[in-house]
Design a protein that fits this description.
Layout (H helix, E strand, L loop, with lengths): L1 H11 L6 H10 L5 H32 L1 H18 L4 H4 L3 H10 L5
Length: 110
């Protein structure tokens, strides 16, 4: 799977400034093998899975318990979608209520 992701990324010629690009950069410098890249990818996924799901579950609980925040957040997302035509990571990070919700739940972001 990792080898296929590497081939696809290299064939497309795009740079996405993500973890895969970081690993490809290490491979190009001969510092890491494809097998090591796969191991890092699996570790990265597994290590982040539980903590991310816990933070998201807690955030959804807090939003569900606070109707005012829920309404403001929903309206902001709908307004952003109407202005931009669709939602993407880049458009959602501009939402002040969404960012405030994440920062409130996960104070380690600051």
């Amino acid at each position: 799977l990792m080898a296929e992701a590497i081939r696809t990324r290299k064939a497309s010629g795009t740079r996405q400034s993500d973890y895969l690009d970081y690993l490809i950069g290490l491979q190009e410098k001969k510092e890491i093998s494809v097998l090591d890249m796969a191991a890092h990818g699996v570790t990265f996924f597994i290590d982040g899975f539980e903590t991310t799901s816990e933070v998201l579950a807690f955030a959804m609980f807090e939003i569900a318990m606070n109707l005012d925040v829920q309404k403001r957040l929903r309206q902001e997302i709908l307004d952003t979608e109407n202005q931009e035509g669709s939602l993407s990571f880049e458009t959602v990070v501009t939402c002040s209520n969404a960012n405030a919700s994440v920062l409130l739940v996960y104070t380690g972001v600051n």
